[in-house]
Specification:
mainly alpha; 9 helices; 5 strands; globular; binds zinc ion
Length: about 270
């Protein structure tokens, strides 16, 4: 019996990996993911497939909506932020894991604990990831000069800790839609708890982006950047924030915060 159950689990995991891997392969061919990003997405997706259809639906909601928004005015965004941000528009493994690891752990944990707590964690994590991604993608090209969240001064588009009205509105819409999807899945997580998790995650992301994320300076271009090696070929120097705290780590912490808020309120 035990052996049969183990074989069943093993086969189930292989099927889950195959299903998630197919979607990740399509996303790779669509230039949405790097090779590492596709591998990471396969692992996160397989956890969702193991946990069941509501989990797949929630993950697909985040992945599809964020991918479509990244494509929206992609050329303009690339031109605006290429001096500043470290990564291109293809998601790499660190980006995928920062956005997906809390959800993936919750998906696996839900298989052993039917209390509903892990559904709350997952819904909060997806709401935070959605709100943050939407506000970043829309805020960069949605018009209006970003203002630094701490003191209101104008900063270049793409600056961590910079917020715009359009970006903030997009984050709120993202959190509300994530909550709507959660409620439609018949999960017993209150709508307001998911919205609150999404907004809390987004706020923590902006605050940490402003306070602790590493900022670097290119002497040759006289520009702030996240890059160690600037596009011009010059090495950049540390000018603020904490060394080693990059956008992905800030993202992961803010998603943990969002998941925690929804879990507390569920
Ligand atoms: Zn430079």
């Amino acid at each position: 019996m035990i052996c049969a159950a183990r074989t069943g689990t093993f086969v189930g995991m292989l099927l889950a990996l195959a299903a998630a891997g197919t979607v990740a392969l399509l996303a790779f061919h669509g230039r949405l993911l790097t090779v590492g990003g596709a591998i990471a997405a396969t692992l996160v997706g397989a956890c969702a497939v193991r946990a069941g259809i509501p989990w797949i639906a929630l993950l697909l909601f985040f992945f599809v909506s964020s991918s479509l928004l990244s494509r929206w005015r992609a050329g303009e965004r690339e031109r605006l932020v290429r001096d500043l941000v470290e990564k291109g528009d293809r998601r790499d493994a660190a980006q995928v894991l920062a956005n997906g690891i809390v959800f993936a752990v919750a998906a696996l944990a839900s298989l052993r604990d039917a209390s509903g707590a892990w559904e709350a964690v997952a819904a909060g994590a997806i709401a935070a990831a959605t709100a943050d991604t939407w506000s970043t993608e829309v805020g960069t090209v949605g018009g209006g000069a970003p203002r630094f969240i701490l003191d209101g001064r104008q900063v270049p588009p793409g600056t961590s800790g910079g917020v715009t009205l359009a970006g903030t509105a997009a984050g709120i819409v993202g959190a509300v839609l994530a909550a709507s999807v959660t409620v439609s899945l018949d999960w017993e997580v209150p709508f307001a708890a998911v919205v609150a998790g999404g907004l809390a995650g987004s706020a923590v992301d902006s605050l940490l982006g402003a306070l602790v994320q590493e900022r670097r300076w290119c002497d040759r271009c006289a520009l702030y950047t996240e890059r160690r090696l600037h596009r011009c070929g010059s090495l950049t120097t540390h000018r603020g924030g904490i060394r080693g705290i990059d956008n992905d780590l800030v993202n992961l912490i803010s998603i943990l915060a969002g998941a925690g808020v929804t879990w507390l309120l569920h």
